[in-house]
Amino acid sequence: MPEYAKDVMLALLGASVGLAGLLLVVAGFVFAQAGSFPPETTDDETIERYELAGKIGLVPFGLSLAEAGLCLIWLLQPSPSVYTTAVTWFFVLLVLTALYGFVLLLRYL
After folding, report:
1. Distance between CA 32 and CA 30 in Å, rounded?
2. What percent of the chain has pLDDT over 90?
3. pLDDT bracket for residue 1 (50, 70, 90)
4. In the chain, where the domains are located
């Protein structure tokens, strides 16, 4: 492990918790959007699409929290394998969050 591993893990911990909060707000916004459609004039398929988009946002949210937990585990018991896993998961989390954001912006908003 590099000598700056603790700094990296602290940064990943803060970034993953911040990203989880952002994802929760965005997913909540999508759920609120689904709830704002008048049921009399909006077909159920449209409402269900927005609800599904909000539910899919809970996947990167949960992964963000899992990443924060992994970083905390490393801070309590440093291990090279946990370090590598945490850094890798964070890159995957960034890709999933970017995909979710692009899909929401292009298809739902």
Report:
1. 5
2. 91
3. confident
4. 5-104
